[in-house]
Specification:
mainly alpha; two-stranded antiparallel sheet; 15 helices; globular
Length: about 325
């Protein structure tokens, strides 16, 4: 009972317990669900949402929201094979160039929000719309195949039996948790999200921190795009679309307030795993795509009501 009470007072812990409960029930009722290979595969899929959700968490903590995450993932997945130079056999130059472009997009989002005073949700929506149109012109609706060895290694390698995407997610998680909870800049993000006026009067720069969170969001979205490209071996228009709403849902499922000022990336991690697990369970049901979407939306709403109960209090 003490664990249950503690969980309802701690949204990230509650989300972890929900993941454990779903995995236990599914493993006992569905053949092969609890196999190591299948659970490892679910974590590999969750890594993409978790990495994209890292930047989304930072933006939401400051009271904003990044609607360009899916478009940045798509831009990275499509442009990287096109801009990888032939003179670089390692493929690292192409990765660096793609991450630079993704980071620059995030910086432009931050500049629009900081200097033009455009609300982040509007700025990032406009950026996403612009990027989608640009991609249609550049790619023309056709898929591009990746031959970059570093990208392929990132998507396919399994050192010590662990997918490299999970390792990258682990590194990202450590960095973001240290950033939010052990560095002064994390306290500034939370202060600006909780009370922008008080934080500004205390000497916290709204402009600088807005630029930082959106730049980081662009970088993490680009990193997620590279991982998606490596896992799928090709990029196409719309490949990043599913990760926009799931990155937001993972953040909120983890107990982070959508209004900003309260939350932690420690909740986004199990939130991403819970979303992937829910999707895997729904695919088992022999239902039409429409009914699957309805079931997925209903389950997400129910999980949000449970995980957000204490936060609302």
């Amino acid at each position: 009972m003490n664990i249950i009470r503690s969980a309802f007072r701690n949204p990230p812990l509650l989300t972890f317990l929900l993941v454990a409960l779903v995995w236990i029930v599914a493993s006992g009722s569905l053949r092969g669900f609890g196999a190591y290979g299948h659970l490892r595969y679910l974590l590999e899929l969750a890594a993409v949402i978790g990495i994209a959700g890292a930047g989304q968490t930072l933006v939401i903590l400051m009271g904003g929201i990044d609607l360009s995450v899916g478009a940045v993932i798509t831009v990275t997945a499509i442009l990287l094979p096109l801009i990888s130079p032939a003179w670089d056999p390692s493929g690292l130059a192409g990765i660096a160039a793609a991450l630079t472009i993704a980071t620059a997009i995030g910086l432009m989002n931050g500049a629009g929000a900081a200097y033009l005073r455009v609300p982040p949700i509007i700025m990032t929506l406009a950026m996403a719309t612009f990027l989608q149109g640009l991609l249609v012109i550049v790619a023309g609706g056709s898929a591009v195949t990746v031959s970059n060895p570093a990208v392929i290694l990132l998507g396919q390698a399994r050192p010590l039996g662990i997918p490299s995407g999970i390792i990258v997610w682990l590194v990202v998680s450590i960095v973001v948790l240290l950033l939010v909870h052990r560095m002064p800049i994390g306290a500034r993000f939370l202060a600006l999200g909780a009370n922008p006026l008080a934080a500004r009067l205390s000497g916290v720069s709204v402009t600088r921190n807005t630029l930082i969170v959106h730049t980081l969001s662009g970088f993490f979205a680009g990193l997620a795009g590279i991982l998606v490209l490596g896992m799928n071996r090709q990029g196409y228009v719309g490949i990043g679309d599913p990760y926009l709403l799931t990155s937001i849902a993972a953040v909120v499922l983890g107990g982070t307030s959508i209004l900003g000022g309260r939350g932690t990336y420690a909740g986004t991690i199990p939130g991403a795993i819970l979303l992937v697990t829910t999707t895997a369970l729904i695919t088992v049901v022999n239902a039409s795509p429409g009914w699957r979407s309805i079931m997925f939306g209903t389950l997400i709403l129910a999980l949000l009501l449970v995980s957000g109960r204490e936060a609302r209090r």
